[in-house]
């Protein structure tokens, strides 16, 4: 009698394990979608402030404007927005930042920086990550770069998203245009 129950229990367990691969945590829910939080071609500058260092018409991927960093102007105009303004209904888990960039050579090591900072303590970011622009080809022409960032625990809607182009050790001007910040939703 005990052996029959054990055999029956093992059979049910095995049947359950065999059907498990057909289950997925997202079954019955809509597929993940990308949701745009911010996009700019620098023709419109909502969120970018009033001091616009590095804004230029020298080169642009689209439109007339792009941002330019150089040894003489290492930091460009900075985007700042409250996380709650970008994503008012929930806390994002993962962000993706993408941009079109123009990097003259592999030695021009500029980067696009994304930081998440407390509103009352901007000098101590909870997250500060970079897209290294000289890591991939081509050089001397426009190319698309992007990077995804996992959001740290403990962020709140009043934390600020900060994005800027930094010259780093580039010896020549580097340009960025058509920035886009998205989340998976």
Provide a concise account of the structure shown:
The chain has 2 helices and 10 strands. The chain is mainly beta.
Would you kindly provide a written description of the structure presented here, covering whatever features stand out?
Keywords: Signal. This protein is 12% helix and 36% strand. The chain has a single domain (32-184), classed as Galactose-binding domain-like (Jelly Rolls, Sandwich). Strands 1, 2, 3, 5, 8 and 10 form a 6-stranded antiparallel β-sheet that branches. The chain is built from 2 helices and 10 strands. By secondary structure, it is mostly beta strands.
CATH class category name: Mainly Beta
Q: Radius of gyration from the CA trace? A: 23 Å
Number of DSSP E strands: 10
Total helical elements: 2
Distance between the termini: 52 Å
What is the assembly state of the chains in this entry?
single chain
Mean pLDDT: 83
Shape: globular
Binned strand content: 35-45%
Write the CATH fold name. Jelly Rolls
- Sheet of most strands: 6 strands, antiparallel
The computed structural class is: mainly beta
CATH homology group: Galactose-binding domain-like
Order of helices and strands: HEEEEHEEEEEE
* Low-pLDDT regions: none
For the record, the CATH architecture stands as Sandwich
């Amino acid at each position: 009698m005990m052996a029959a129950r054990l055999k029956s229990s093992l059979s049910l367990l095995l049947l359950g394990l065999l059907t498990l691969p057909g289950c997925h945590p997202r079954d019955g829910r809509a597929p993940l979608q990308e949701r745009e939080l911010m996009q700019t071609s620098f023709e419109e500058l909502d969120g970018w402030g009033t001091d616009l260092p590095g804004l230029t018409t020298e080169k642009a991927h689209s439109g007339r404007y792009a941002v330019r960093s150089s040894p003489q102007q290492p930091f460009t105009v900075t985007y700042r927005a409250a996380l709650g303004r970008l994503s008012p209904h929930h806390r994002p888990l993962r962000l993706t930042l993408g941009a079109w960039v123009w990097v003259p050579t592999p030695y021009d090591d500029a980067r696009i920086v994304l930081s998440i900072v407390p509103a009352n303590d901007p000098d101590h970011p909870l997250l500060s990550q970079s897209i290294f622009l000289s890591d991939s080809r081509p050089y001397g022409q426009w190319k698309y770069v992007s990077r995804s960032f996992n959001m740290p625990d403990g962020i709140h809607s009043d934390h600020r998203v900060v994005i800027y182009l930094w010259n780093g050790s580039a010896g020549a001007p580097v340009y960025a245009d058509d920035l886009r910040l998205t989340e998976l939703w």
